[in-house]
Write a sequence for this structure.
């Protein structure tokens, strides 16, 4: 019996969708979003091009679903452990962030800095991802009884850009250790430290 | 006598090139780089399409020259005043930066966050611009007798991403004052403060 056919029969629609997105994310580590070919993915999944279009009405829809999935994966990997104190929680989240981006280095760099990274719809998804990260970081702030002012919100947005840039540079050219990197990322956000002044002195 | 003809006669090749680039930068505040039309610019300059191509061999060359000019303009606006102490120098540079981006708001946001901002060649120019900014910031550090480690270099790169993100958010939605913004940008770079520890605690 042909293995491909078994797969085709056994996968539920949700599982098939998952499989296609996971193949898309893998492909994203090899080439830019715009270069991800429907034909290649369908072939790798052992399904017809037509079936792929059943799940994603257009190539564009497929590409954006890949970005959305990748973005959800990051957020999923960064769920705070609420049993920890705020500073521990931040360090724990940043450790998992560095692990995630190290494991998914090429697709992460491609999404954030690749040729397609200026795409307006892609930006909307990444922007939403950052907003959710800002909200999570502000939760640490609330634990630490810090009043969330527009200034703090802005600083946290900036901190996320700092984290992305430093991490991408580090992934490309790791001149410091993983521990030094995490120290730097955590240390750049004093807002989470319980005794921090209400003014962010990032 | 026709004013356009006078203009055409009077501009030297260097002046004409400047004029075309300045028109391009103005246009960049209205639309993305890819949407800047050679025909429109030639019309605004009162020259033929062919003459524009004499200065810039292709539309692509023209677009990249606009990015290069815009990038040079920013660096030009941020020349440090070496008569100041390092902390004063940083504040002075950041004040000029905020003035520059406020005056060139739309083209600045378009370059850094527009649909074309993922373009690889555009990124190379902006990346080079950031490297030059990092070097300048490290000069402040040297004035302050701080040893420039790979860690500090990485932190300064991250700080530039912080500055860009915070400033773009602020330009889009100015929830804090200009003075508060400058305080935040300056405060995020303790490396420049003479008595800072050799470890960047951004």
């Amino acid at each position: 019996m042909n293995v491909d056919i078994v797969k085709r029969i056994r996968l539920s629609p949700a599982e098939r969708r998952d499989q296609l997105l996971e193949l898309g994310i893998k492909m994203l580590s090899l080439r830019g979003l715009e270069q991800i070919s429907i034909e290649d993915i369908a072939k790798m999944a052992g399904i017809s091009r037509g079936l792929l279009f059943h799940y994603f009405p257009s190539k564009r829809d497929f590409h954006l679903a890949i970005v959305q999935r990748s973005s959800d994966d990051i957020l999923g990997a960064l769920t705070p452990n609420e049993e920890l104190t705020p500073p521990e929680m931040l360090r724990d989240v940043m450790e998992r962030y560095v692990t995630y981006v190290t494991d998914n280095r090429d697709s992460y760099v491609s999404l954030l800095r690749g040729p397609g990274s200026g795409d307006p719809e892609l930006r909307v998804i990444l922007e939403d991802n950052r907003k959710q990260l800002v909200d999570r970081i502000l939760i640490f702030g609330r634990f630490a009884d810090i009043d969330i002012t527009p200034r703090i919100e802005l600083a946290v947005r900036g901190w996320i850009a700092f984290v992305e840039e430093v991490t991408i540079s580090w992934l490309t050219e790791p001149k410091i250790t993983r521990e030094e990197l995490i120290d730097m990322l955590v240390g750049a956000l004093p807002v989470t430290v319980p005794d921090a002044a209400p003014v962010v002195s990032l």
